[in-house]
Design goal:
The structure holds three protein chains of three kinds. Chain A is α+β, with helices and mostly antiparallel strands. Chain A folds into seven domains: about 150 residues, Ubiquitin-like (UB roll) (Roll), CATH 3.10.20; about 170 residues, 3-Layer(bba) Sandwich (FAD/NAD(P)-binding domain); about 100 residues, FAD/NAD(P)-binding domain; about 80 residues, Orthogonal Bundle (Arc Repressor Mutant, subunit A), CATH 1.10.10; about 140 residues, Gyrase A, domain 2 (2-Layer Sandwich), CATH 3.30.1360; about 90 residues, 2-Layer Sandwich (Alpha-Beta Plaits), CATH 3.30.70.1400; about 90 residues, Aminomethyltransferase beta-barrel domains (Elongation Factor Tu (Ef-tu), domain 3), CATH 2.40.30.110. Helices cover about 25% and strands about 25% of the residues of chain B. In chain B, strand 19 and strand 20 form a beta hairpin. In chain B, helix 2 runs parallel beside helix 7, helix 2 packs across helix 10 and helix 3 crosses helix 10. The two termini of chain B are about 35 Å apart. A four-stranded antiparallel sheet of chain C has the order 3-4-5-6, with no helix packed on it. By secondary structure, chain C is mainly beta. Chain C has one helix and six strands. Chain C has one domain: Folate-binding superfamily (Folate-binding fold, 2-Layer Sandwich), CATH 3.30.2270.10. Classes of the chains: A alpha+beta, B alpha+beta, C mainly beta. Chains in contact: A-B, A-C, B-C. At the A-B interface, helix 2, helix 3, helix 11, helix 12 and strand 29 of A face helix 1, helix 5, helix 7, helix 9 and strand 18 of B. Chain A: Belongs to the GcvT family.
Chain lengths: ~950, ~425, ~90
């Protein structure tokens, strides 16, 4: 039995493209352009879902993207909004959150338990005795949630777009369209967005029956589409308002982030349901939903029905229904009198009885509780918000349209920081004070008359143009006068048996508010949290306003004193993939990256870089441990080379360069000889060790400074800041990316280097700590003796563009000498053998130099260095811990303690292992640990507790690990 | 269906009393005034009354109770901290939470789910071991687990994080729980009220009177109240209160944001945190995913939301759970977190006699609610901080005795 | 994402900037007491209001001072350190 009617002018369906899909196993015919809900409704299917809490049958309510009870799954996706998402051929749809189908949902019994489930019932039970809570929790969790997530849903990457404009207009209804034309005619670049598939807003349904307004719509749309200054985006919503006019426009394929110079909010208003018993039955819907069904999809909302209203809109709805062939049996007006007399006359002329000062007391469900059987009409007492039965009647019908008022779609205005006030003339909140560059027009601004809305759009656009500097633009006045407000001040009908729903997402009835207030939750925020009103997926679009009205009445306060809850983004729920974007995770690669990969490098993330942890030689099947030991052994016995391009590299030059470094780092640099280098230890103001690198003097006024890889950016940044602060004559150049670095280490390194450079690299000419500039393999390089991984090691810095060439040349030249590349794992072992700590590996966010045996790097006699004053304070305090080197017994063969295993003394934590490794070269397990100061003497034993709780003895080593005797 | 709900079905009148009285006019004087009607302030009031019989107490709340960070956090309770003093403190809180529904006679939905702090790098793994070892030492059930064990608890997790940040392991913390945050505030309010504590909503403190280094009273928009004891338990508003008494602290305010998805059938039965990806996520008993991230990068004293936050968070959530792409974010919000340089609270006495501070709660205030209330009540009653919170004293900064929580940089809410 | 005006590069999205904390005068380390120094190192002016702050524009490597109201998150002016009078 189809409810589809004859073609409507401007309908959104394509009758030439029929399609078929199934719903709950039943085959349904539809047209391309139908939403799931319109297709089902046209086919006479009215149970579109079950409610969240009581599992009541639900149909269409808003038909405007907040029908949260009509959520579908197509087997791939879930929680699909049936009211707005188009249906496509071959779909197999099911309602979510049912057990055994939407009609026979086994959980529908919960509706009958509702007397046992008062507001906040879950706070009052399930927890005594305590051990029972997990049992109840399990039951509650089973009942919770809407759709089932599909764990096989494919990963979506949705690139974002950016757009800029002078005026962003949100909402392409009458006020938005006219605002767009006005702004564009003033030469402004306009983006106009609308969440509907087509622009026009209420012109396309509420005023579609009038041929003059439908012509007006056509003209407006034509002008907008032809205007070169206007970009119209439909089927996309403004997700939220963020600082400085940033508005994400959420479309089907992704998000466009619009940065506007000004914003006009013309989002209209959400129609609000009057509240009476069983106002949620399938067949009871908002008047605007009924109009959209008729005009957009050519579907008759029901056969015989009643309109309940409190404004002119209800009269237009009644006329639309009658024109669509619905037998309208009554128009129930909750007001004492009708509004527009012409409208009232038109309704009467259709033979529709108008009942003034009346209400729907309740809707009687059909025997299967799946639809409407009868409506009980009664008089309405505004004072008590209750029915008066002296004028009561029953009308058999299958549907109700409700038009009792509106709530502004003001979420974006709230997010922008608009102060709203309650306007009793329109009985709604309207903007009182708008933030700079934000404007409001149309219903959201409290303007309802169609002609005035068009004018209000022009007015807002003129204001925006003036805000943008168009001083000569004339101000437009919009004078509005109301006989009767478009919204009813209290569209509530009390009923002793309840089920008069305020929030359809959460199944909240009038008595729930009354009872919440009785329990003390009588301000709007507490009431929201206790009742959960407005917390469902529709975010209170159809419930917050009535909740405020009810609370105001309970507390006997004017509505404006109740206030509103805060409207947070998003305007509509927004997919994670849209927000996540293209999943961009940038990494930096060194110039030798591909070489590493091609030579078996096992690449690991190291801060922002990718670095080889170790290499799997071609054809070999080494374990990581074997490879690391081999790489380290090569450095000790022949030669090894590591890509150190990730080091921070900063050039410091100018007449104050030395003085600058003296203030920045702990050591002395002013007296450093040209051609030599010193360790550069950086502290923060509290005296905590932050970084250590090497500062080498290239010339009197020029230093080349390295930093730890992970600190490259921050050290450079701090240098820049201090330079400004101290006002010194220094220039900084960050060469971290421009220069590559590699360290050639081991006894054979000198011989290898000799083959590639004319530079004298022997001890006398090139001692420890020296820096030289010379050509290697034809490329100008800076070469430093840095004893980090081995006593004999050359750190070679070259421009990144030549780095691979040098690297390959050295590797080739070194092959006969047994040169191997080594990765970060071997580097870690090698420096441990050398006894060097790693900052933020062996130290933490509280370690000062006294604790890390770095006192030798402090020139406390300098006038100033960062952290010095704090060190003076710390020096006077007893040490709490000390970083020491240690060895395990020779031949230790049990499971190795791990880094961060604790040092335990007499049952107390006194420290922790910071580094530990087996060294094949030393044939010992060596490490570093924090211990108590009284455990730190050379040769002293302490105990480490392993993961398994075993205590392993370790011995403090103060000298070099290489001088360990084999005992 | 529990029988306790029967009375609601049998009565037309809603047979439940007010949780707390509607106090509007404060008295002229109280034995103690607590500024801040969030979980901490209400808990302190409750324990003052219960443990020390001090019931002539006013709680002053400038908005509505539980409306600050109590109602804005992601409800995670855990004790897997880095220092023994931290672990002991939060463990005491966890133990109190476990029996709190019964004690306050309200279902807090305290749900022990287990908590995984995921490690994506070797250095994160080291920190996990450090925390695990300290936790074990103190007797808290935490240990390092490998990917298989994580997958056992959450088979839906993409262990490679879409190839972006493979998970090497995790710190598993068995007592990790979630609770209904609002109910904690309501429960404490209800029981404190029952014992005589007066709770004033919409009551803002505009000044604090100090004479000869001693608190003598507070000025409010509802008149002057004289008292010798004032507790500030106002989280993000702490600097405004300490300014009134002229106390310097290291606290700065950064927004902390969170968001929630549409409800879906429960599938995530544990609590997951990723330091590297700056994400924490659990699923509420309503079926929503509750998701949070790290602090906003700069100081702001407001609860505005940012798009950057929800974009970054979503990107990482989808890395971890690629199938969630079309699951929708319903709402985002923010709280004002009061941050200290060593990631530990500031609790106890202050240089102003009779002025007590319960602050510096950063991102870990909710989980400390019961124990902070109890220890601050004791501090106020005895004018001496108990041993458990001594290392959180304000003077530690002047003494260069920061707590060791600063050692671990990784995020873990 | 908000916008911030770099005195050298003009108005750029906030994601290009790094916050450097409030600008504070350090006491003279030679003459100040331990207590005054500790206060400088650890304590902050946490109450909301108009503050002079360090901000860093990453892509160009520019430090500058922004005068920002930390309550409303609105910036009244920005200038290079030491050039306050010319701003």
């Amino acid at each position: 039995m189809t409810l589809r009617i004859a073609e409507k002018k401007g309908e959104w369906i394509n009758r030439d493209m029929p399609l078929t899909f199934t719903y709950e196993g039943q085959t349904v015919q539809a047209f391309e352009g139908d939403t799931m809900s319109s297709a089902l409704w046209a086919a006479g299917i009215k149970v579109l879902g079950r409610s969240f809490k009581y599992h009541r049958a639900r149909g269409l309510l808003s038909f405007a993207n907040h029908d949260v009870n009509a959520l579908m799954t197509d087997g791939v996706d879930t929680n699909i909004r049936a009211d707005v998402i188009p249906v496509s051929h071959g779909m197999e749809l099911f309602a979510v959150n049912t057990e055994g189908g939407v009609v026979k949902d086994k959980n529908r019994f919960i509706d009958r338990l509702s007397p046992f489930l008062p507001v906040g019932f879950y706070y009052k039970t399930f927890f005594k005795p305590r051990m029972m809570f997990p049992f109840w929790e399990n039951k509650i969790r089973k009942a919770a949630g809407l759709g089932k997530v599909n764990f096989d849903y494919p990963r979506q990457l949705r690139p974002k777009r950016n757009a800029h404009c002078d005026v962003l207009i949100i909402g392409a209804g009458p006020s938005g369209l006219s605002a767009a034309l006005t702004a564009a005619n003033h030469g402004k670049q306009v983006i106009l967005v609308d969440e509907n598939r087509y622009a026009g807003g209420s012109l396309g349904y509420d005023h579609a029956a009038d041929s003059s307004t439908s012509d007006k719509l056509e003209t407006l749309l034509k002008q907008v589409s032809e205007h070169s200054n206007i970009r119209l985006i439909c089927d996309a919503y403004a997700g939220g308002y963020y600082g400085d006019h940033l508005v994400p426009i959420v479309g089907k394929e992704g998000i466009t982030k619009v940065r506007a110079r000004s914003v006009i909010v013309a989002t209209g208003a959400f129609e609000q349901p009057p509240v009476f018993r069983n106002n949620d039955l399938p067949g009871v819907m908002l008047g605007s939903a009924a109009q959209r069904l008729v005009h957009r999809y050519a579907v008759k909302p029901f056969h015989r029905g009643v309109v309940v209203t409190a404004n002119d809109h209800g009269y237009r709805t009644a006329l639309d229904l009658a024109a669509a062939g619905v037998e309208v049996l009554a128009l129930v007006d909750m007001r004492q009198q009708s509004g527009d007399e012409q409208l009232a006359a038109a309704v009467a002329s259709k033979g529709i009885t108008i009942h003034l000062a009346s209400c729907i007391y309740e809707v009687i469900p059909s025997s299967d509780k799946l639809g409407v059987a009868e409506v009980v009409l009664a008089g309405y007492d505004e004072q008590t918000a209750s029915a008066r039965f002296e004028r009561s009647s029953r009308i058999a019908c299958d549907g109700v349209a409700m038009s009792a008022g509106w709530a502004p779609a003001a979420a974006l205005l709230y997010q922008a920081g608009t102060k709203m006030r309650y306007d009793y003339a329109v009985e709604q909140f309207v903007p009182a004070q708008l933030p700079e560059g934000v404007f409001a027009a149309g219903k959201v601004n409290g303007v309802y008359d169609l002609a005035l809305r068009l004018r209000d759009g022009q007015r807002a656009a003129a204001d925006a143009v003036r805000y943008l500097g168009g001083q000569d633009v004339e101000q437009i006045e919009v004078a509005q006068s109301f006989q009767l407000a478009p919204s009813h001040a209290y569209p509530i009908v009390h009923h002793p048996d309840g089920k008069n729903f305020v929030d359809f997402d959460e199944d909240i009835q009038v008595k729930d508010f009354i009872n919440a207030a009785k329990e003390g939750f009588d301000n709007i925020e507490l009431m929201k949290r206790f009742t959960t009103v407005g917390m469902g997926p529709s975010q209170g679009k159809h419930s917050n306003m009535n909740a405020i009205r009810i609370l105001a009445r309970i507390r006997q306060l004017p509505v404006e004193q109740i206030g509103t809850t805060t409207a947070r983004p998003f305007f509509h729920p927004t997919p994670l993939a849209h927000l996540g974007g293209r999943g961009f995770h940038p990494h930096r690669l060194t110039a030798m990256h591909e070489w590493h990969v091609n030579h078996g490098g096992v690449m690991m993330e190291a801060g922002v870089w990718m670095r080889p942890a170790w290499y799997q030689p071609q054809g070999a099947k080494l374990t990581a441990q074997e490879a690391v030991q081999q790489e380290a052994m090569a450095v000790r016995k022949a030669a090894g080379m590591i890509d150190g391009s990730t080091l921070g590299k900063i050039e410091v030059f100018g007449q104050d360069a030395g003085a600058f470094l003296e203030r920045f780092y702990t050591g002395k640099f002013a007296d450093l000889r040209v051609g030599s280098s010193r360790v550069a230890l950086l502290l923060d103001e509290a005296g905590v060790m932050v970084d250590d690198g090497v500062a080498a003097r290239l010339a009197e006024d020029k230093f080349y400074v390295s930093t730890n890889s992970s600190n490259a950016a921050t050290v450079y940044r701090e240098m820049q800041r201090n330079l400004q602060l101290w006002g010194m004559s220094v220039t900084l150049v960050n060469l971290t990316g421009a220069m590559a670095a590699m360290t050639l280490a081991g006894p054979a390194s000198r011989s290898i280097l000799t083959e590639l450079t004319e530079l004298d690299v022997f001890e006398e000419a090139f001692p420890q700590g020296a820096i030289r500039t010379a050509e290697i393999a034809g490329v100008q390089a800076r070469i430093m003796r840095v004893a980090f991984v081995a006593d004999l090691a050359f750190e070679i810095h070259v421009p990144s563009s030549s780095a691979l060439h040098i690297w390959q040349n050295i590797m080739k030249t070194g092959q006969p000498f047994g040169l191997r590349p080594f990765g970060t794992d071997a580097q870690r072992l090698l420096r441990l053998e050398m006894g060097h700590h790693l900052i933020s590996h062996d130290t933490d966010g509280l370690t000062n130099p006294f604790e890390a045996h770095a006192g030798g790097l402090l020139a406390m006699d300098k006038a100033f260095f960062t952290g010095q004053r704090s060190l003076q304070i710390l020096a006077a305090k007893p040490l709490k811990k000390q970083l020491v080197k240690f060895v395990l017994d020779p031949g230790f063969s049990a499971e190795l303690p791990k880094e961060c295993n604790l040092v335990i003394n007499a049952g107390q934590i006194t420290g922790r292992v910071t580094s530990i490794a087996y060294s094949e070269y030393l044939n010992r397990v060596i490490g570093m640990a924090f211990v108590a100061p009284d455990q730190a003497a050379n040769g002293q034993q302490f105990e480490i507790r392993t993961d398994d709780g075993l205590l392993v003895k370790a011995r403090v080593v103060q000298g070099s690990f290489f001088k360990l005797s084999a005992q | 269906m529990p029988l306790s709900l029967l009375k609601y079905a049998l009565s037309r009148e809603h047979p439940a009393p007010r949780f707390f009285r509607d106090c509007t006019e404060p008295k002229k004087t109280y034995d103690a005034v607590i500024i801040g009607g969030g979980g901490h302030g209400l808990a302190a009031a409750y324990y003052l009354a219960k443990d020390f019989g001090i019931t002539n107490v006013a709680v002053l709340e400038k908005g509505y109770i539980g409306g600050g960070n109590t109602g804005r956090n992601t409800t995670i309770v855990r004790s897997n901290y880095l220092t023994p003093e931290g672990v002991n403190f939060y463990d005491a809180s966890v133990q109190m939470y476990e029996g709190l529904s019964q004690e306050l006679d309200i279902n807090l939905f305290y749900s022990t789910r287990g908590h995984f702090t995921l490690a994506h790098t070797e250095s994160a793994m080291r920190t996990m071991r450090w925390r695990a070892e300290v936790n074990k030492h103190v007797g808290v059930e935490s240990y390092v687990v490998g990917p298989e064990e994580i997958l056992k608890a959450c088979p839906q997790l993409d262990i490679s994080c879409s190839g972006q940040a493979p998970i090497l392991g995790a710190l598993y913390h068995a007592p990790g729980s979630v609770a209904r945050h609002d109910a904690v505030a309501w429960g404490y309010a209800k029981e404190a009220d029952r014992m005589g504590v007066e709770i004033f909503q919409n009551t803002e403190v505009t000044g604090i009177d100090v004479k000869s280094g001693k608190v003598v009273g507070v000025q409010t928009n509802k008149g002057y109240i004289s008292t010798g004891r004032v507790l500030s338990a106002v989280a993000g508003f702490t600097p405004r209160i300490t300014e009134m008494v002229g106390i310097e602290t290291p606290i700065v305010i950064h927004p902390l944001q969170a968001c929630v998805s549409e409800p879906m059938k429960p599938w995530l039965n544990t609590i997951l945190v990723s330091g590297s990806l700056h994400v924490y996520v659990s699923q509420s008993s309503r079926g929503e995913l509750v998701m949070g991230s790290s602090l906003d990068p700069y100081e702001v004293h407001s609860t505005r939301s940012s798009l950057d936050f929800v974009e970054g968070l979503s990107s990482h959530i989808v890395d971890m759970f690629p199938f969630l792409g079309n699951v929708k974010v319903v709402r985002q919000w923010a709280g004002m977190a009061d941050i200290t340089p060593d990631f530990a609270p500031i609790m106890g006495k202050t240089p102003v006699e009779g002025f007590y501070l319960d602050a510096g709660w950063g991102t870990w205030g909710f989980k400390a609610t019961p124990i902070s209330g109890k220890t601050m009540a004791e501090t106020m009653a005895r004018d001496m901080a108990p041993e458990l919170i001594k290392s959180f004293r304000l003077s530690r900064f002047e003494e260069y005795e920061l707590t060791g929580e600063k050692g671990a940089a990784s995020v873990g809410h | 994402m908000k916008l911030l005006q770099c005195p050298v590069n003009g108005t750029r999205p906030i994601s290009e900037f790094t916050y450097g904390g409030e600008y504070r005068e350090a006491p003279d380390p030679q003459t100040c007491s331990d207590k005054v120094w500790a206060d400088y190192v650890h304590n902050r002016h946490g109450a909301p209001g108009l503050k002079k702050e360090w901000w860093y524009h990453g892509p160009s490597g520019t430090w500058f001072i922004a005068e920002r109201n930390t309550l409303t998150d609105s910036v009244s002016r920005t200038y290079l350190f030491g050039q306050e009078k010319d701003a």
